[in-house]
Amino acid sequence: MSGGTRLLVDTDGVGGVPVDGGQVVTNRWGTGVVTDISSYYRNTTSVDLKRLPDDVEATRSVVESALTEGAIGYRKFSVLKGKRLFAILRLADGSQPPFGASVTSEKGRELGMVADEGLAWLSGVTPGETLSVNWDGKIQCQVNVPETAISDQQLLLPCTPQK
Fold this sequence. Notes:
By secondary structure, this protein is mostly beta strands. Helices cover 0% and strands 50% of the residues. It has two domains: 6-80, Immunoglobulin-like; 82-161, Immunoglobulin-like (Sandwich), CATH 2.60.40. The protein contains no helices and 16 strands. Strands 12-11-14-15-16-10-13 form a seven-stranded mixed beta sheet, with no helix packed on it. Strand 2 (18-19) and strand 3 form a beta hairpin. This is PapC protein. One of its GO terms (biological process) is pilus assembly. One of its GO terms (cellular component) is cell outer membrane. Residues 89-144 form the PapC-like C-terminal domain.
């Protein structure tokens, strides 16, 4: 560590995320410091996908940086924490949202997309959360995830129209 070049990594507030082959694990605020960064060369830093906790998923798991000697860089990984659900979405008339409709969290993060017949594989879901289903550029309906949502079950979720 001749020049003291470091990289501050951010995992969107998700703690316990192994980075750089597990040499660094993010703290409870989702930050960690990678110290083995070469100065003046392109460095690749990644989330260790093999060691991720079961309720965590990285949607952007590799970042690159080229830092000067002694610099402290910053890179952000896109990480979701929560349950994974296999859901069937239905509108009030029994139809389903269109293929490709986006399902987003209360924070505006995309958790999944609607496939054929209203099927949706969702990641990073918090039980009790209200999700928005978007198509044609706006929120069309909302889905309430039950407090007792279990990851290994398929859920039928009604999508209430947005007024």
